[in-house]
Amino acid sequence: MATNGSPSPRTFRVGMLGCGIVGTGAAKLILNAQPPLRDKTGIDVQITRVAVRDARKARDLPLKPAVFTTDCEALVRDPEIDIVVEVIGGIEPARTLLLEALKRGKAVVTANKALLATHGKELFEAALAAHSSIGFEASVCGGIPVIGAIRDGLVANRVESIHGILNGTTNYILTRMVENGAPYAEALKEAQEKGFAEADPTLDVNGTDAAHKLVLLSDLAFHSTFNFKEVHVEGIENVQADDVRYAAQLGYALKLLAIAKRRNPGADPDEVPGGLEMRVHPTLIPQNHPLANVRAENNAVLVQGDAVGEVMFYGRGAGMLPTGSAIVADIMDAARGSARQTFTKLQFFQNPRADLPVIPADKVRSRYYVRFTVKDQPGVMGKVATVLGEHGVSIASVIQKEPDASGTVPIVMLTHLTIEDRFREARKKIEALSFVHGGSAVFRVED
Ligand code: NDP
Ligand code: HSE
After folding, report:
1. What domain count does the chain have?
2. Distance of CA 30 to the CA centre of its chain
3. Both 357 and 368 in a single domain?
4. Centroid of ligand 2 to alpha carbon of 196 (angstroms)
5. Residue 337 belongs to some domain of the structure
6. Is 28 annotated in the active site?
7. Is 77 a domain residue?
């Protein structure tokens, strides 16, 4: 017993695989949280072992050098360790190490959305078989407790849609480009220096990271298992400052949105039956949309449920302490024994989803922003409008700018709702017209 009469704290021993941005954040919070975690929870969390690539590297942590090792396999087999926290990233060796830890009955916590979105079923089944658990709050939206909120808080709802800004790096880049005119490469470098970007930042800017997260949120929200390959993904690499400006003149902001949306079977003969649209792409949203003012590395998830209506979760989606905060929450959940109970009752990856096929990308329904660069001559606008009309694409608004020194003008159009394959066909025909210069810029619009 402790001297003040309260019971001695129970010890819970953590082995960490990785100690970079996220690992350091989690360790700092375990070691320095105020008030200390044991005062709040009655559990004394101890970092017993930390496996890294370079055990001699100086770390900004009050941990003895002997705690560090390069032997990940020994860490996951160590009988002294109760929980393995994986913050290495990537698929291997993370996958093999976690399977080994689970086989030995250890609880697991991970921030690795790439691993879970591609090998989640295998890992979740291994955890169930071992009566263990996998905590993955840190894998989506950094410090925002959105996994627990969707899994538990919204359990009574049939979720209709998720619209999310799920990647901090790209949101940071777009914010710096729009608000400060920063060049794309400079904004990306800043995001890397601040610790938001993935080890390979291509995964951020090409939309893959947001798609990984969308899969995890959709598994929970729609009680199914989705395959990462089913998500239609486009990144921000080709976004041009001109389009962001024209969009603003039309009253829209540009965000990299991750969207999962139920669609009921339509009356339109061109439409496929109902299902789920799953897509990540740069998207125009009205400037007064709740997601339009989510800036910098912040993330937000807007969920539409049949009972609750719209709910939005907002906060820091990347970085050392926000993500460390989510890791520590999952560690405490495991230490209390609640993670195992929750996990063994999760059904999503066992449910067939014959009723919820993912709708192919060319059958997605959307409005479009499109910019063509054309010769400044009479009749051009009419011809473009005619081709769109022939494909059943109707125009909602148009802006045409003054010609530049080369004698070309940009025509910017917003369409009404249409089906992707109709729009693509019309766009291809317009790009082939003799008075059109180069390709066009296209963004989908969500209202
Ligand atoms: P870092 O690159 O900063 O850290 C990776 C850590 O893993 C380093 O400590 C590195 O060792 C160690 N490591 C890498 N490979 C091995 C290996 N083969 N064996 C042993 N140790 C290894 O990554 P982050 O902390 O940024 O990201 C970690 C995970 O968290 C990723 O899955 C990422 O997607 C996810 N995540 C990241 C967020 C962020 O804001 N950064 C937010 C949410 C999730 P050493 O230090 O010696 O190099
Ligand atoms: N690279 C990720 C991002 C880290 O920028 O959002 C958080 O998952």
Report:
1. 3
2. 26
3. no
4. 5
5. no
6. no
7. yes
CA dihedral in degrees (31, 33, 36, 37; nearest 10)? -90
* Predicted confidence (pLDDT) per residue in 125-157, tens digit: 999 999 999 999 999 999 999 999 999 999 999
**C-beta neighbour count of 140 within 10 angstroms:** 30
Ligand 2: which residue has its CA nearest to atom 7? 318
192 and 83 belong to one structural domain = no
At 293, is the pLDDT very low, low, confident or very high (cuts 50, 70, 90)?
very high
| Pure H helices in 78-207 | 94-103, 113-129, 146-148, 168-180, 184-193, 202-205
Domain-embedded: residue 341: no
| Residue 139 neighbours by CB under 8 Å, 6+ apart | 110, 111, 112, 113, 116, 147, 212, 213, 216
Q: Are residues 175 and 307 part of one domain?
A: yes
Residue 247 tokens, joined: 């969009």
Closest C-alpha to ligand 1, atom 31: 89
Tell which residue, 294, 343, 276, 301, has the closest CA to residue 150: 301
Q: Identify which of 277, 310, 318, 280 has the alpha carbon closest to the alpha carbon of residue 164.
A: 280
Best residue among 189, 196, 202 to mutate for probing ligand 2's pocket (most ligand atoms within 8 Å of CB) is 196
Same domain, 38 and 129: yes
Q: For residue 399, give its domain range.
A: 364-445
Give residue ranges with CB within 6 A of ligand 2. 142, 167-169, 196-198, 204, 209, 317-318
Q: For 153, which DSSP code?
A: I
Q: What is the pTM of this model?
A: 0.96
- Is 159 found in the same domain as 134? no
Please report, for the domain that includes residue 237, its CATH number.
Answer: 3.30.360.10
Q: Specify whether 55 is located in the same domain as 170.
A: no
Cα distance between residue 196 and residue 199, in whole Å: 9
> Does residue 416 sit in the same domain as residue 371?
yes
Least confident of 11-25, 102-116, 140-154, 388-402: 388-402
- With respect to residue 225, please indicate whether it lies within any of the assigned structural domains: yes
